[in-house]
Design goal:
Glutaredoxin, 96 residues, alpha+beta
Length: 96
């Protein structure tokens, strides 16, 4: 994955927050809106917009956290993972 594949959203530092998402996923959009409303800085990649080796690389990385490769998947500080849109778990994981 290259830096051009990753979208950065500015906000408060809650550690490294990385979201694997799909551009067409309603739950992914809700997750982005939640993070935005909390003012959290985060990075994300819309996996469905990638192609070829880049898409394979990102999917392999995602499967390390979520073997089912379902969306959304949020990784916090390279140690915690929240799979799916669960507002309470997301808030807990980022300390909000």
């Amino acid at each position: 994955m290259t830096p051009s594949d990753i979208v950065h959203v500015d906000g408060a530092d809650a550690g490294r927050v990385f979201l694997y998402a799909l551009s067409t996923c309603v739950w992914c959009k809700r997750t982005k809106r939640l993070l935005d409303s909390l003012g959290i800085g985060y990075d994300y990649v819309d996996v469905d917009t990638l192609t070829g080796d880049t898409k394979n690389e990102v999917t392999t990385s995602l499967r390390q956290w979520n073997p089912a490769a379902s969306y959304p998947t949020i990784v916090i500080n390279d140690k915690d993972c929240v799979i799916g849109f669960d507002e309470d778990k997301i808030r807990e994981a980022i300390g909000k």
